[in-house]
Amino acid sequence: MKTLSRIYMWLVFALLYAPILVLVVYSFNKGGSFAEYTGVSFYWYSELFHDSAALLSLKNSLMLAVSAAALSTLIGTFAALGLDRMRNRYLKGAINSATNIPMMNPDIVTGVSMMLLFVAVGGWLKLTDTLGFGTMLIAHTTFCLPYVILSVLPRFRQFDKSLREAAMDLGCTPAQSFFKVELPQILPGVVSGLIMAFTLSLDDFVISHFVSSPDFQTLPLYIYNQTAHEVKFSMYALCTLIIIAILALLLLVNFAGGIGDRTKKRKEAVK
Questions:
Q1: Please, are residues 131 and 211 in contact by the beta-carbon 8 Å criterion?
Q2: What is the pTM of this model?
Q3: pLDDT band at 271 (very low <50, low <70, confident <90, very high)
C-alpha cells in the first residue's frame, strides 16, 4: 500500500512540474525548436530584452496586478471588518453568499457581463474609448475582492475581542484600536490576501480578454495573440524568469516566517 501511495504521489508531482521543467529546459535551447536541442545558450534571454512589445506587456501586467491587489486588499480588509461587526446574522449570511458569487461564477460569464456593463455605461456617458486600463482595474479588483475577504475574515473571528475593548477602555478611539491593536493581529491574513490577489490578477486571461483594449495589453493576452502564429522562445525565457522570481519570493517568505517563529519561541522561553 505504501508503494502505491508513493507511486501515486510521484505521478501527481510529475504531472504538475514536468511541463514547467520542459519550459525551463527549452528556454535555453538556442535552436528554437522542440525537434532538436542544439545546446545550452542564453540567446533567447538576450532576445527577450530586445522585445519591446513583450516588456511593455509585462510592465502592464505588473502595474495592473499591483494596483488591483492594493485596491482589493484595502476594500476587502474593511469589508471583512464590517462583516465581523455585523450583528444581523441573516443580513451577514446574505452578504457572505453574495461575496462568494464571483469566486463560483465561471470566468467567461464574469468577463462577458462586465464587458456589457462597461459598454452600456460608456454608451450612456457618450464615451468613445470605453475599455482600457480603468475597466481592467475594476474587473480585476472585483474578482480578487472575495479572495481577500476569505483570507482576512477568519483572522477577525480568531481575534480576542477583549483586547479591543481594553484598548478603548484605556483611551483609544475605535480607529486607533483598529490600527494599533487589531491590524497587527490580522496582518498575516491581509498579506495572504494581497499575495493571492496579485497572483490572480497577474495570471488572469479570460476576464482580461473581454474588458481590455488594443492600447493596453497584458502579458497573457500578448502570449495568446502569438499562438495564432508561433510562440517565440523568448516567451519561454520570460516565463522561466517569472518562475524563478516566484520561487525566490516563496523561499524568502518561508525563511522570514521561520525566523519569526524562532524569535517568538525565544521570547516565550525568556518569559
A1: yes
A2: 0.82
A3: low
Distance in angstroms (rounded) separating the CA atoms of residues 154 and 26: 43
Give the whole-angstrom CA distance, residue 124 versus residue 133. 19
Q: Whose grid coordinates read 453574495?
A: 98
Task: Pull the grid cell for residue 257.
Answer: 516566517
User: Rounded to an integer, what is the distance from CA 197 to the centroid of its chain?
Assistant: 3
Q: CA-to-CA distance for 55 and 53, rounded, in angstroms?
A: 6
Closest listed residue to residue 138, CA positions, set 211, 63, 220: 211
Over the stretch 89-140, which tens digit does the pLDDT of each residue have? 888 788 888 888 888 888 888 889 988 988 888 888 877 777 888 889 999 9
Determine the residue type at 31.
G
What is the gyration radius of the CA atoms in the chain, in angstroms?
A: 23
Helix (H) or strand (E) holding 6: helix 2-26
As a residue count, the chain comes to 271
- Write out pLDDT tens, residues 10-64: 888 888 888 888 888 888 887 777 777 777 788 888 888 888 888 888 899 999 9
Question: For the residues 199-218, what does the mean pLDDT come to?
Answer: 87
* DSSP 8-state secondary structure symbol assigned to residue 22: H
Answer positive or negative: Cα dihedral of 185, 189, 191, 193: negative
Q: How far apart are CA 227 and CA 224, in angstroms?
A: 5
Contact (Cβ atoms closer than 8 angstroms) between residue 119 and residue 113: no
